[in-house]
Amino acid sequence: MSEALVLGVVRQAIETAVVISLPMLAAGLIVGIVVSILQTVTSIQDSILSFIPRAVAIFAVFAFTFPWMLRVATGFASSLFARLPELVR
Known about the structure:
Elements: H1 3-42, H2 47-82, H3 84-88
């Protein structure tokens, strides 16, 4: 197995992980910014107020995008298993 082949597989795995986690991270970022602006405007500094909406948004996005994430992860695993004879050499 050549070094370029290993690096290609690792790169593809990292790209897949980033693509899968991006919707949840973006939702957490957007909700965190909105809650932070709201806390600044109202001068309410409560840590629970910043945590709960972010957790709810991340869970909602996870529940909504789970079938897509499963298809992407399954596609990556299938392509990896299909390339297994090439990777073993």
